[in-house]
Design a protein that fits this description.
Layout: E1 2-4, E2 8-13, H1 17-20, E3 37-39, H2 45-51, E4 74-81, E5 91-96, E6 99-100, E7 102-107, E8 110-116, E9 122-125, E10 137-143, E11 154-155, E12 168-170, E13 173-175, E14 180-181, E15 185-190, E16 193-203, E17 206-215, E18 223-230, E19 233-241, E20 246-252, E21 270-277, E22 283-291, E23 296-299, E24 312-315, E25 318-319, E26 322-327, H3 339-351, E27 356-359, H4 368-377, E28 380-384, E29 391-393, H5 400-417, E30 423-427, H6 445-457, E31 462-464, E32 485-487, H7 497-503, E33 509-513, E34 517-518, H8 521-527, H9 543-547, H10 555-563, H11 570-593, E35 601-604, E36 615-616, H12 628-636, E37 640-645, E38 650-651, E39 656-665, E40 674-681, E41 686-690, E42 694-697, E43 704-713, E44 716-726, H13 736-749
Parallel strand pairs: 11-29, 26-27, 26-35, 27-28, 28-30, 30-31, 32-33, 33-35, 38-44
Antiparallel strand pairs: 1-15, 2-3, 2-4, 4-10, 5-9, 5-15, 6-14, 7-8, 7-10, 12-13, 16-17, 17-20, 18-19, 18-21, 21-22, 23-24, 24-25, 34-36, 37-39, 39-42, 40-41, 40-43, 43-44
Helix pairs in contact: 3-4, 5-6, 7-11, 11-12, 11-13
Length: about 750
Amino acid sequence: MKICLTDWKLAGYWPYTPIQNGSMETGHIHQGVTGIIDAKVPGSIYDDLLRAGIIEDPYFEMNSLKCEWVSNRWWTYQTSFSLSEDLKGSRIRLYFGGIDYKARIFVNDRFICEHEGMYEPVFVEMGEFARFGDEVNTVRVIIESAPDEMGQIGFTSRTFTQKARFTYKWDFCTRMVGMGLWEEVCVLISGDTVIKEIQHRYCDSLVTGSVLTSSIKSDDNARLEANLYYNETPIDNTSVPINDGKADFSLTVTHPLLWYPNGSGEQPLYDLKLSVVSQDGTVSDQKSLKIGLRSLDYAQCDDAIESALPYIPVINGKKIYIKGVNITPLDLMYGCVTDERYEKLIRLCKDANVNLIRVWGGGIIEKEIFYDLCDRYGIMVWQEFIQSSSGIDNVPSKRPEFLKLAAATAEWAVRARRNHVCLTFWSGGNELMDADGFPATYEDENIAMLREITSRLDPDRLMLPTSASGPLAWQDAARPELNHDVHGPWKYQGPTRQYTLYNNSPIQLHSEFGVDGMTNPKMLDRIFSESNKDRIYTAANNPVWRHHGEWWDTFSYRESKIFGDLNGCIDTLITVSQFMQAEGIRYALEANRRRQWKNCGSIVWQMNEPWPNFSCTSLLDYSMTPKLAYYFYRDAMKRFHISLKYDTITLAPGKTFSATPFVHDDDADVKNATICITAISEDNTVLGVFDKEVEFTVPEGIRSFTLRCEATSGDKKDINNYLFFVLKEGEPKGSSDTVLKFVQSYKESNNIQ
């Protein structure tokens, strides 16, 4: 039985004050700096302070600067709970799922332990000091000031914590260092023997597994009962003895329903129920989990050299082309993210044809609900351990205190997440490199430690040393043999460079890249006052705009140069900015996909953002409302799709334009698709109709044209529209009016509000 503790009180103090409590000189009892307020668990101290009216909305304008004091205080959580008399004789444990970050725990006025680390949970055996009946049990957690860790700019080699680093300031969020009880706190009630750890595997119609138990009393005749169901229909069961705290089981599935990633098949999930039964026949502990049945292997890309890593996941013998996105934590206050918000994100991924999410190493090991949803919706997971680049140096930390904490996090994470069928890759972290800037390898002491843990605890899954895993970190077409798994770029490269770059890309796996674009109009209302959105501002001339996305302000070098004067209209700026983001991402995805199996996939940076920016590389804004790039991503990753290869979107009158169509079909290698491409000017005049190849002379007197590409194969059909600008020497490279009409037409044809 589990009782979640949700009724908490919170108070803030000057450092160390909660330990001494009263003044040594006067005996005065310290009241703290906030008074006692209500707290939510799981949650965030910032959210509690906001609801209590002590801080202002940190996501509005520059209010986050006003609450940076929060991470410099000590905080005390308190609650109490009762246990009925009939629970005497039961095993009573307190479970703390996630404490952010360093804490002292007291139960019934007894000091229990100190704990450091966000991820590894704490179990407290209450034993003889549990109180029953009218006596109340008390819990107090004192959380120390947050450690002074590195933000995005710093030294990776000097990191020393297992704390979500993005909250210390990253390009997509402000500095708001997380604190609090961010996972649930529960009372666990059981018999003497409990299930401590589970590992299951599937192969050739057999589900095999091992269960480790923990017991406070000897029970030589305890047994493990394992039952497998599908849609409540029994499949198989077994009962095996528990010897020295371990039991191995095997279950047969005569007609297995196999799990496939999104777009490649269905996602059937079985129910595995495990029970520890004592000698007297009573159930001491029970666990139930959803499991998927599938084989997992990995293959190299076509023409890869022998030393290249095998980046292609092979599910049930079928190679899966990676259609991926990177995610950040869903919110700076990650403890407050609801199950419904997680489901919205994963449903949006599924609907956009995503089949893999990379969980970035500068964020968090996600909550259990995230992996449950990825199991359900068929989204493979690439899970990184908690370390990331820092810019000044990116060398994995070798500090003894860091390695100890990183090992503890990794041991917990692998044991806790390995039973999820969605989990496909482990990775040592984000953009970890040697002193010369080359991606870290398995030879690095830090990476070797993590690899040993994954190999020992989860031998069927591949752990990549880092992302990008190299040999180069950044895309470089001049050295094609070294572009295995690379990152970048993250900005639109220009009306010609964006296209020639990706047309000549030799990348095997593009595990992080993107293009920035402005947020949706309603989000500006969420973050700016009227005076800060009455016209177009930039990060250079407005500090509030700078606070919400300085790195991704492209107006001065992109929109203004490509489109000329936008007459100060923010709505026009939003549309053309989102168009450039969508166009840049669409072309990169399609170019990578045209090289399928020489290239094994794309993982766009990034799907979401954890706080509201006026501009960012995210496909969704902070409210998870799609930007235009989300829909272009969705279209580019359709199972049946037509794409067009070309070298530029700007042409001069009288010049020859040429392009080549490609048809993509995840179900078969299309050889006989019917292709029709129509060139249409801005006044709807048909300039030409083509099939296998597009080539025509750009007429004088037009400012733009679109290419409407259609492909059919049997009952499959796809339509894709491309916009091109025609200009004379010295003119701006595009017309914002043309973009507005193109985007409006796209939205209307796709029923997008």
